[in-house]
Design a protein that fits this description.
about 325 residues, alpha+beta, Alpha-Beta Plaits, elongated
Length: about 325
């Protein structure tokens, strides 16, 4: 067997200069930055933009990154304190995340999320800030719409809650509202060791008024009683229309105010009441009043039933004396 000729040694590939390698790495880095779907920046501590990609330029309303190099990043902040807060955060943390508004070259505003870091030199001083900006305007818009919708829902619920506790005709608490606020008043009176007065009030002969003058006039009397109670009593007193022609008042006793004084003020206001178009029509009410000792707690229904009984007695007495309408 013949021997084969020895293989020729391969020539080593010529080595590339270090500067060439550095340029290739830098070119690949720049190409990568250009391909990123987010804005990339580098700024000096005083805010000058020294590096940017095309996405960032377009985000800010410019065609080329070079158009940004003559600008200061402070020019684009809607709220200048946002940058100050970001830099303050980066002074104690290696990276920071913050959302804020920026302004485009044409003045339009948009929201970004900034992922930034501080690059320090050997002596610890800041060389520059690097960061990535993500446009989050769409999410912020949706959040704002959600908050607006939530606020509208809350206002709607508050309105519904108010309607569920209020009487449409008189604007007073309805039965449910009177019980709700009345129980709160009783708890407060118990803590303060103060008496409450419960007044049960009924319009005399409202049915006859409705039959003679019409329900519209009867409604005017109901509204008149509401006005009398609201103007005669204190704002802190709980007043409600708890039935067709029935009203209730829960008043906390104050210094110098007795049960006779309370009922007298109401009665005087009732006697002075007149309907402009019906001068001969007189408003008349019957009342029952009980004192509530906060230390002898009972259900509000029990006191209301007692006041109702006293009111009924007064009404029967008026009928026997012929003093009702």
């Amino acid at each position: 067997m013949s021997q084969s000729a020895p293989a020729k040694p391969r020539k080593a590939a010529p080595s590339r200069p270090a500067a060439s390698k550095g340029r290739n790495v830098e070119d690949r880095y720049k190409a990568l930055v250009e391909q990123l779907p987010v804005g990339v920046y580098r700024t000096t501590p005083d805010g000058r933009i020294i590096e940017a990609n095309t996405i960032l330029a377009r985000m800010l309303g410019f065609k080329r990154p070079q158009d940004l190099f003559s600008r200061n990043v402070k020019d684009f902040y809607v709220q200048g304190e946002d940058r100050e807060e970001l830099i303050a955060q980066l002074s104690s943390e290696p990276m920071a995340f913050k959302e804020y508004e920026l302004r485009k070259a044409d003045g339009r505003k948009f929201w970004v999320r900034d992922h930034s870091r501080r690059i320090a030199g050997p002596n610890g001083t800041t060389l520059h800030y690097d960061g990535i900006l993500v446009d989050v305007t769409e999410r912020k818009t949706m959040e704002r719409r959600y908050q607006q919708a939530l606020r509208k829902l809350q206002l709607s619920n508050e309105k519904l809650e108010s309607l569920s506790l209020s009487d449409d005709l008189t604007g007073l608490n309805n039965r449910r509202g009177f019980y709700s606020f009345g129980l709160q008043q009783m708890k407060i009176a118990k803590r303060l060791k103060a008496d409450n007065y419960l007044v049960f009030l009924d319009i005399d002969c409202l049915k006859e008024v409705n039959d003679t003058y019409g329900h519209a006039v009867g409604d005017l009397l109901l509204q008149g009683v509401a006005i009398i109670l609201k103007t005669t009593l204190r704002e802190s007193d709980v007043i409600g229309r708890i039935g067709g022609d029935e009203f209730a008042v829960l008043a906390m006793r104050s210094k110098g105010q007795g049960e006779r004084g309370l009922s007298t003020r109401i009665e005087e206001s009732v006697q002075a009441f007149r309907l402009k178009d019906y001068p001969r029509l007189r408003l008349s009410v019957s009342m029952g009043l009980v004192r509530i000792d906060p230390q002898k707690y009972q259900q509000l229904d029990d006191f209301l039933a007692h006041a109702d009984f006293l009111m009924y007695q007064q009404k029967r007495k008026k009928e026997r004396q012929g003093t009702t309408l």
